[in-house]
Design goal:
The complex is a heterodimer.
Chain A (H helix, E strand, L loop, with lengths): L3 E4 L2 E4 H22 L9 H18 L3
Antiparallel strand pairs in A: 1-2
Helix pairs in contact in A: 1-2
Chain B lengths: L1 H46 L5 H10 L5 H28 L4 H21 L4 H16 L9 H25 L6 H21 L7 H25 L4 H5 L1 H30 L3 H18 L9 H24 L4 H32 L19 H25 L4 H14 L6 H26 L6 H20 L4 H15 L9 H24 L7 H20 L5 H19 L5 H29 L6 H17 L3 H21 L3 H15 L15 H6 L2
Chain lengths: 65, 708
């Protein structure tokens, strides 16, 4: 994946695109976790969510570098 | 003796200390979190070398709130507004790059539309509109001399605002979050316990009309509070989001059941008043099993399910009891009244069962597969207020723009920007003149303190940590003020003025002349917004708007009589509740306005629901030929009467309903219809209701129940 992507002739950093993608992914995971009550097993759900986001975003960003 | 006194007092004193400490902890937690978000945002913005870190930092102040769910909800809508505003700024600059007059007109119109939209919503959706206007202004105004720079300006402002939102969202969500989920859970549970308790307590018979009005007020408030909480909590809690559909259904069934319950009691009251005790007593006797069924401890968590089999038992018992009670009556009039009441009671029992069923589903630890029925809480918005707000903001902006062009003022854009923020932010406030005044006062102090901080303190220090240390004490004052009820607006103004005038950037620029010019421009902008609120007063809370809302409430009967049926029951209930709660929050409790409103609300509620049920039955069964025409005439005349009540229309409606009843009872085939019509007729003839003013002369007690 290129480090910069041209969207409508504007150069957008690839990281930003991945950021949006991982936000969407997180939203999906969050929905699933809420639906099946997974957050009941976690001590601090928002912290868990944040950590999960960092993991998802980091993993995706690794494909860039 | 004294020892006993001390023992008695000690827990109380300790309680006070604990409560005070808890309150203080919550205040300082808010201050700490907001400052953390503020400085973290600034640091990240400088690391990413964004052109204006102060915009990002100001954003964290604007979204600061003690409830985490609120921050997320605000941030979500703000993000939408920011992106929308950026697109519009782009279009405006692209359309009029060399026409400053047209550019300013277009921008003023957009800002006006945004503040109009902000008045339409009472929750955080209004932020989307405020930010739509604000973002368009902060993107477009700085590049008015340099249109090609609009793209860079847009990307920079969007990055800054979104960064501020992201950081404050994350901080508020993860660092000692204070959850609204618990408030929601408690509210739902209280609503349930209160309603079930009220139903149980009133099986004894008549309820005074004033008690009824108070109960209605409470039901309305419960329903609207629950909906408001729900729409915020779904942003902070994934589980609440998953249950959102069930919660909406729970609320809908609550509104339906409480309306039927009130109709039933109005009916019993009327019978009692007309001294038709046989029927009244029979209905109360019929009702008794329901009270017995509900007589179970409901405070404990998972108890709603316990009530379900008991309710089924009560329903069977009532079905068995009804014919026995009916046999004992001789008068045909009594029989007819009893049939009406029994049908109403059946409806109420079914609705109560559905309500308890949803409550049980909500209390279950696992969400049962298959989402609830899609329902929406419809709002009763008033567009006249929005148009007035649009007009006010547009005029303010145009006046400032004209002044800017004529005086060739270098700081004109700064003034316009500030006016934009405040015109939008306070358009929906109930008393914007006072609030803007307070905010302006705070803003002035904030700027003076900002001057001291910037030129006396910041010039002495070097590096980010020292800057934080030197800004924090000044900022803290404003944040602490924001948490207090009386100083809240001043605190908000102080914090905003302080953060905005410091204009922190990297490297920092110290320019007293520019500072003072900017401060003057901001004060001019703020005053323009404040003056506009005086000259074009807001309609919220005004007599005119109340009259309109009352007319709208009455128009709900026309809605019930004529709107397409699918989903109508819920639409009717939710708009009713929203309208009533709006007016209630804007009137003094116990005032003449408030009482008139409640009286109308009860009448509209009862008649409207009966009309909807009648139309449902009419649709379901095959009405005998000829009857339909009479019923349609009755519906239409009722709708006209409620839309603009007067004595002539009242007579028309009364006679039309009487004719329909006569027509239906001749055919004698459709019992359901007859009972609904009978209920409508009795509501229309109720001498104690608000309709009494339109009756030709107060009807005799006999006439009420002997109505054909």
């Amino acid at each position: 994946m290129p480090r910069e992507i041209a969207i409508g002739d504007a150069l957008v950093p690839g990281l930003f695109v991945l950021f949006v993608v991982s936000l969407a992914l997180l939203w999906l995971l969050d929905w699933a976790a809420g639906r099946f009550g997974i957050y009941r097993l976690v001590w601090h759900p928002p912290l868990f969510r944040l950590a999960l986001f960092v993991c998802v975003f980091g993993a995706l960003a690794l494909t860039l570098f | 003796m004294s020892a006993i006194d001390i023992e008695k007092q000690a827990p109380a004193t300790r309680q006070i200390v604990v409560d005070t400490l808890r309150e203080q902890v919550s205040i300082w937690l808010f201050v700490f979190k907001t400052m953390l978000a503020f400085f973290l945002t600034g640091w990240i913005a400088m690391r990413l070398s964004l052109p204006a870190p102060s915009t990002a930092m100001l954003t964290t102040i604007i979204v600061a709130n003690r409830q985490s769910g609120m921050v997320l909800a605000k941030s979500f809508y703000r993000a939408i507004g920011t992106l929308g505003g950026a697109v519009v700024a782009f279009l405006i600059v692209a359309a009029f790059p060399q026409q400053r007059d047209l550019f300013l007109v277009a921008l003023s119109l957009w800002l006006g539309i945004c503040s109009g939209g902000a008045t339409l919503y009472r929750n955080f959706k209004s932020y989307a509109f405020v930010l739509g206007g604000y973002t368009a202004a902060i993107i477009a105004l700085p590049v008015i001399d340099n249109p090609p720079g609009v793209f860079d300006s847009a990307t920079a402002r969007i990055s800054e605002v979104l960064l501020g939102l992201l950081v404050s969202g994350v901080i508020n969500d993860t660092v000692f979050p204070s959850r609204m989920r618990d408030v929601l859970r408690r509210t739902a549970r209280e609503q349930f316990a209160h309603f079930v308790g009220f139903v149980r307590a009133s099986t004894g018979g008549t309820i005074a009309r004033s008690t009824m009005e108070r109960a209605h007020l409470r039901f309305v408030r419960d329903a609207v509070t629950l909906e408001d909480l729900r729409s915020s909590v779904i942003f902070e809690d994934a589980e609440a989001r998953a249950r959102s559909g069930h919660l909406q259904e729970f609320n809908q069934r609550f509104m339906a059941a409480s309306t039927s319950f009130q109709s039933l009691h109005h009916l019993i009251n009327r019978l009692k008043r007309a001294h038709r005790d046989t029927t009244g007593e029979a209905l109360i006797a019929l009702y008794a099993p329901l009270g017995a069924a509900l007589d179970a401890p409901i405070e404990a968590g998972a108890a709603a399910r316990v009530l379900l089999p008991r309710l089924i038992g009560a329903r069977d018992e009532m079905a068995a009891k009804a014919p026995l009670l009916r046999e004992g009556m001789t008068d045909t009039q009594d029989v007819r009244d009893f049939d009406t009441g029994a049908a109403l009671l059946r409806r109420f029992t079914d609705e109560l069962y559905a309500y308890v069923d949803t409550a049980a589903t909500l209390q279950a630890p696992r969400i049962i597969a298959g989402s609830a029925e899609r329902v929406r809480f419809a709002r009763g918005n008033d567009y006249a207020g929005a148009i007035l707000a649009t007009f006010r903001t547009t005029i303010t902006m145009l006046a400032l723009g004209v002044f800017w062009i004529l005086s060739a003022w270098p700081m004109g854009s700064s003034a316009m920007l500030l006016a934009t923020i405040f015109a939008g932010l306070f358009a929906a406030a109930p008393n914007p003149t006072r609030v803007t005044g307070q905010v302006m006062f705070g803003y002035l102090i904030g700027m003076i303190i900002g001057f001291v901080c910037e030129f006396a303190v910041l010039t002495q220090v070097d590096g980010y940590p020292l800057m934080v240390a030197s800004i924090a004490p000044f900022l803290m004052i404003g944040l602490v003020m924001m948490t207090s009820a009386t100083l809240g607006s001043i605190g908000l103004g102080y914090s905003m003025g302080f953060a905005y005038i410091l204009a922190i950037k990297n490297p920092m620029v110290y320019d007293p002349v520019h500072f003072i010019n900017d401060a003057i421009a901001q004060v001019v902008g703020l005053s323009a917004a404040a003056i506009a609120f005086v000259f074009v007063p807001t309609v919220i809370g005004s007599r005119w708007l109340r009259q309109r809302q009352l007319a709208r409430l009455r128009g709900q009967v026309a809605l019930a009589a004529e709107a397409p049926l699918p989903g109508l029951r819920h639409r009717f209930e939710s708009i009713n509740h929203d309208l009533v709660s709006q007016v209630v929050s804007q009137t003094e409790p116990g005032s003449a306005d408030s009482r008139a409103l409640l009286a109308w609300a009860l009448a509209v509620h009862e008649t409207g629901r009966a009309l909807i049920e009648l139309r449902h039955d009419l649709d379901r069964g095959t009405a005998p030929g000829g009857v339909r025409g009479y019923i349609d005439t009755a519906l239409a005349s009722l709708a006209r009467f409620y839309e603009a009540p007067d004595a002539a229309k009242y007579l028309l409606a009364r006679d039309a309903v009487a004719t329909a009843i006569a027509a239906v009872s001749e055919k004698d085939a459709s019992h359901g219809l007859l009972e609904h019509l009978h209920l409508i007729r009795m509501a229309l003839l109720d001498g104690e209701s608000v309709l009494a003013a339109y009756m030709p002369s107060a009807p005799l007690a006999q006439e009420i129940s002997n109505a054909p």
